[in-house]
Amino acid sequence: MEGQVATDNPKNVVQSVAKAFAVLRAFDADLPELTISEVAARAAVDRGTAFRFIHTLCHLGYVASVAHSRRFRLTLKCLELGYTPLARADLKVLSRPLLRELVPDVADAASLGMLDGESVVYMERFQGDYPQTFDRRVGSRTGAYAAALGHAMLAYLPEERQRELLSRGERVKLSERTLIDLDALIDRLRQVRGQGYAVSDGENAFGLRTVATPILDDNGQPVAGVSATIRAERMPLDIFVAEVLPRMNRIAADLTKAVHLSFGTIAHSGG
């Protein structure tokens, strides 16, 4: 009968589809990154078949190569299929491979942060091996008023809420460029919302440049933000923004889509 699925006849099974899903199921929460040989072994297919399926799935956007390695990982596009390991993950887990691929290619550090009152809490962080005098560890905090991550999230709150949060704590100059005047900060947040991203050039720490983008829920409210940071001597600010912003926008878009596809559960889990 049309519309009825017959599962008892092997002739009705498309083996290539079955193998494609076997390749996808080779990845799980314990083994999120695999080589082609590992995929072949876990999916019970030969290496040549695994090679063709992996590269087809890469072409379709469901699998991506891991930078500077021979390994592959699932992309957030798999959430569209309801893929369990990713659907049950939180933003920290989902952001890790995306942030890691920024360092050291286009950034010296990359972070995931969330607002906690007037502060930004760093939930995930990748840093290069260069000597640093300014170190942000997972769980550390900084005032949202002085951080690009803070501006990227605050900009999407109602102005009354912005003023409330910015007025809670003491605003001190962390460098000569730090904005502390409330009205000037509100003007900056309007600019950030208009352009969709925030930039800091030595405002949170002298000699560091940061670009940050927000992760929004279905109502356009900020649930988190991602940022990329370089030392000022690495490149001029305008060049850094031009190079890193397209990648930051893609990361934020992917994580925003993950929040939407999970009906908001990802935004509130694990963090």
Shape by Cα distribution: elongated
Average pLDDT level: 88
Query: Structural class, judged by helices and strands?
Result: alpha+beta
Write out the strand line-up for the largest beta sheet, numbering strands in chain order. Answer: 6-5-4-9-8-7
Gyration radius over CA: 21 Å
H-E string? HEHHEEHHEEEHHHEEEH
Describe the model:
- This protein has 271 residues and is α+β, with helices and mostly antiparallel strands.
- The protein folds into 2 domains: 10-87, Winged helix-like DNA-binding domain superfamily/Winged helix DNA-binding domain (Arc Repressor Mutant, subunit A, Orthogonal Bundle), CATH 1.10.10; 91-268, Beta-Lactamase, CATH 3.30.450.40.
- The protein is 37% helix and 20% strand.
- The chain contains 9 helices and 9 strands.
- It has helices at residues 15-25, 36-43, 47-60, 84-87, 91-100, 148-154, 159-166, 182-195, 237-261, and strands spanning 33-35, 63-65, 71-74, 109-116, 119-127, 141-143, 198-201, 208-216, 222-231.
- The strands form 2 sheets. It has a 6-stranded antiparallel sheet with strand order 6-5-4-9-8-7. A 3-stranded antiparallel sheet has the order 1-3-2.
- A hairpin with a 2-residue loop joins strand 4 (109-116) and strand 5.
- The longest helix is centred in the C-terminal third of the chain and has 25 residues, at 237-261.
- The chain is elongated and about 70 Å long.
- The mean pLDDT is 88.
